[in-house]
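lol forgot to send this yesterday, sorry. struct tokens for the thing we talked abt
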């Protein structure tokens, strides 16, 4: 695991198209801004773990041989997510378009 130290408004670059910036630090809570292509899936780790567990359970069940349906997270999980605000930061390049 690579461990980096960053201050507010400093960022790290992953590959050529993903940038993660420290937006705010309040106590032990860090707010990150992620700039990535829209096709990139970004999940909080605790939700990703649920998805992986559900996929494994579905793959192991006898029903999975009959149906090719993709396991989904419970709707209650997404209703919690819908309350999380998305912050859009305008880029100077976006304003010129």
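and heres what i got for the seq, position by position
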């Amino acid at each position: 695991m690579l461990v980096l130290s960053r201050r507010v408004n400093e960022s790290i670059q992953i590959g050529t198209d993903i940038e993660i910036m420290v937006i705010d630090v309040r106590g032990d809570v860090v707010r990150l801004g992620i700039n990535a292509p829209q096709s990139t899936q970004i999940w909080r780790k605790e939700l990703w773990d649920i998805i992986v567990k559900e996929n494994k359970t579905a793959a192991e069940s006898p029903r999975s041989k009959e149906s090719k349906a993709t396991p989904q997270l419970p709707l209650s999980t997404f209703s919690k997510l819908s309350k999380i605000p998305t912050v859009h930061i305008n880029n100077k390049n976006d304003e010129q378009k």
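The chain has a mean pLDDT of 80. anyway ping me if u want another try
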